[in-house]
Amino acid sequence: MVNYAQATGDVDRLGRLSKKCKNCDSGLRFIEDVYADGGQIRGGIATPTRFETSFINMRGEQWAVVDSALKLTPQVVDAAGSTKDARYPGGERSVRLYLEPDAETWTLRSLGTR
């Protein structure tokens, strides 16, 4: 969903996957702002290369902790005008996600790099 949101500026579906996740909300706002100003995001496609899952007790519930390695393609953030343009080289990044059980699914509550 992150790849789709970055490529299109449509963050609706991505936003439904998280709840009270500051890093997630910041990422969504960034994508929205780039596209709202007439910019676009090219590249930055994330491909998971490894997953490790464990569980922790959070407030009496078993939350999932997912550690993942992501392979990222180079990315260009082409903001409106040229003063805010940015280039990122890609590479590999480790991330950790905390998922809260929510009815019959999981909701992302925290996302960070490791």
Give the SSE layout.
Blueprint lengths: L1 H7 L3 H5 L5 H15 L3 E4 L2 E13 L2 E12 L2 E4 L7 E3 L2 E12 L2 E9 L1
Antiparallel strand pairs: 1-4, 2-3, 3-6, 4-5, 6-7
What do these coordinates show?
This protein has 114 residues and is an alpha+beta fold. The protein has helices at 2-8, 12-16, 22-36, and strands spanning 40-43, 46-58, 61-72, 75-78, 86-88, 91-102, 105-113. The protein has a single domain (2-113), classed as Roll (Nuclear Transport Factor 2, Chain: A). The chain is built from three helices and seven strands; from the N terminus they run αααβββββββ. Strand 4 and strand 5 form a beta hairpin. The longest helix is centred in the N-terminal third of the chain and has 15 residues, at 22-36. It is globular and about 50 Å long. The protein starts with a helix and ends with a strand. The model has no long low-confidence stretch (mean pLDDT 93).
Put the structure in a nutshell.
The protein has one domain (2-113): Nuclear Transport Factor 2, Chain: A (Roll), CATH 3.10.450.
Largest sheet: 4 strands, antiparallel
Quantity of strands, as a count:
7
Order of helices and strands: HHHEEEEEEE
CATH architectural type: Roll
How big is the Rg?
15 Å
Straight-line N-to-C gap: 21 Å
Describe this protein with a few key phrases.
4-stranded antiparallel β-sheet; 3-stranded antiparallel β-sheet; Nuclear Transport Factor 2, Chain: A; alpha+beta; 7 strands; 114 residues
